[in-house]
Amino acid sequence: MPGYPYEFMTCVDETAGGNFISLGCCGTHVRRLCSRLCVRSTGPRNRLTRTSSMTKITYRDDRDLPFDSLVALYRANAWSSAEKGAALREAMRGSHSVITAWAQDQLVGLGNTLSDGHLVVYYPHLLVHPDFRRLGIGAEILRRLRSRYEELHMHILVADGRAIEFFEKCGFMRAGETQAMWIYSGGEH
Ligand SMILES: CC(C)(COP(=O)(O)OP(=O)(O)OC[C@H]1O[C@@H](n2cnc3c(N)ncnc32)[C@H](O)[C@@H]1OP(=O)(O)O)[C@@H](O)C(=O)NCCC(=O)NCCS
Fold it and tell me: What is the pLDDT of residues 103-161, one digit of tens each?
């Protein structure tokens, strides 16, 4: 997706102690400004209502996913991981959590997490099949993932430039003065 910048975004649990949080491996510190860092208690509106008038969507939390379904979803999004199907499948097996959305037997959405289980959770992948977007599926996957980590003080992700507004609606915000950095062999960003 050339030409679209990435933003480093965090979602901070306001119940966590301390006046400062540490962001990223570079040790940048950002003052916790209460009004700006509050995680919204409500997500995007009417997501389940909108979905229920369409094809019924079911959500699963198993990490052992069918190879063909995984590759088809990533291919539909033109993500390079589709060309590494075996690694992609193992990546899901090795994730801390995975939530998938299904329209009958078609995999139409997926989100996963990596976490130390105590302080930080990172959201590496969130994608919805192009034919099923704007139905509330992405927000519902993120809501289900987030609910597993309510006690953690940092929720963090690298947002595609076109998805920033989506993540803001889901309670994330730009991560202060930080800049996303990576070593990446994919070609789509
Ligand atoms: C970003 C993505 C996961 C959103 O999934 P989705 O199921 O279409 O999103 P939802 O329907 O749950 O949208 C929730 C809210 O965000 C809004 N929204 C969704 N995508 C948006 C976008 N690209 N720009 C602005 N707002 C967006 C919706 O309108 C909705 O708002 P509302 O409730 O106020 O009407 C999906 O577009 C996608 O897979 N994109 C390609 C992969 C990608 O960029 N993933 C993020 C990687 S960093």
Answer: 999 999 999 999 999 999 999 999 999 999 999 999 999 999 999 999 999 999 999 99
pTM, whole model, 2 decimals? 0.81
Ligand 1 and 29: CB distance under 6 A: no
Does ligand 1 have an atom closer than 6 angstroms to the CB of 162? Answer: yes
| Closest approach atom of ligand 1 to CA 160 | 48
Can you tell me whether residue 92 is helix, strand or coil?
Answer: helix
Any idea what DSSP says for residue 132?
Answer: G
92-116 per-position pLDDT tens digit: 999 999 999 999 999 999 999 999 9
Q: Which helix (H) or strand (E) holds 154?
A: strand 154-160
CA atoms within 13 A on the CB side of 38: 7
Residue 166 CA, ligand 1 centroid: distance in Å: 5
**The CATH number of domain 6-174, selected from 3.40.630.30, 3.40.50.1000, 3.40.50.1820, 3.40.50.300:** 3.40.630.30
Q: Say how many Å lie between the CA of residue 138 and the centre of ligand 1.
A: 6
Residue 184 predicted with pLDDT over 70: yes
Listed by start position, the domains of the chain span 6-174
Amino acid at 115: S
